[in-house]
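Protocol step 4 of 6: structure prediction from sequence.
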Amino acid sequence: NVMLLAPGTVLTNIFTESTEAIQPRENAIYRDYAEAIIARAQLTENRRKGMPVNEFARTIVGRALKSNPPFFTSIAPPAGLYKILVWFPMAFIRTMFGSMFIWKNKAKAA
């Protein structure tokens, strides 16, 4: 069986521990957006609302090991927001997230 997982915010230290080590190469196509990528990663890590990794793992494993697991699982905040956003036009979503993360950080760099 295949299970599609769309998680929200899971509280881990993955990005906190590794963002200092992220240094894009000179010829990387995403070099201009490295700060936006790091800012987005830190935003996820700095949220107080999120699901602890142990609880997240228990929930997902519990659902996956059922005799008839669900095809789609979406848990942890703000997964509910993402369920709503899929109904908006893609141009709106790109503009919204672009203004929040990419263009804002690009303006700071200039």
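Step 5 (inspection) to follow. DSSP finds five helices and four strands in the chain.
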